[in-house]
Amino acid sequence: MENQRRVKELAEKYGAENCIVIIGGSEADSAALAAETVTAGDPTYAGPLAGVPLGLRVYHAVESEFKESVDADVYDEQVGMMEMVLDVDAIVEKMREIREQYTQF
């Protein structure tokens, strides 16, 4: 709930078109739920983003768009090990689906 509140406040302060959310969930479904929450609104209707479709751009830390935008050494140190044990293809597919369906920017 705290993360939802912070994302909402930042989108209001800086404009949703100027925000990108990076997800780090370890499973495709949990990452997709987090991505849906910051794009279409909280599907559980339990948090500050319930009914609030921010439409934010959202990526997972293992996606090439993010990976290519950060220092390779930092990426390897912070994400590299995780990338080796996750189902990256499933995560990438779910994130793509969420962006195509809900992202406004």
Structural domain count: 1
How many whole angstroms does the radius of gyration measure?
14 Å
The 3D shape can be described as globular
Portion in strands: 5-15%
| SS-based class | mainly alpha
Q: Unreliable segments (pLDDT under 50, ≥5 consecutive)?
A: none
Largest sheet, spatial ordering of strands:
1-2
Helical residues, percent: 55-70%
End-to-end Cα distance, whole Å, is: 24 Å
Q: How would a crystallographer describe the biggest sheet?
A: 2 strands, parallel
- SSE order, one letter for each helix or strand: HEHEHHH
The overall pLDDT average reads 96
Q: How many DSSP-defined strands?
A: 2
SS field, number of helical segments: 5
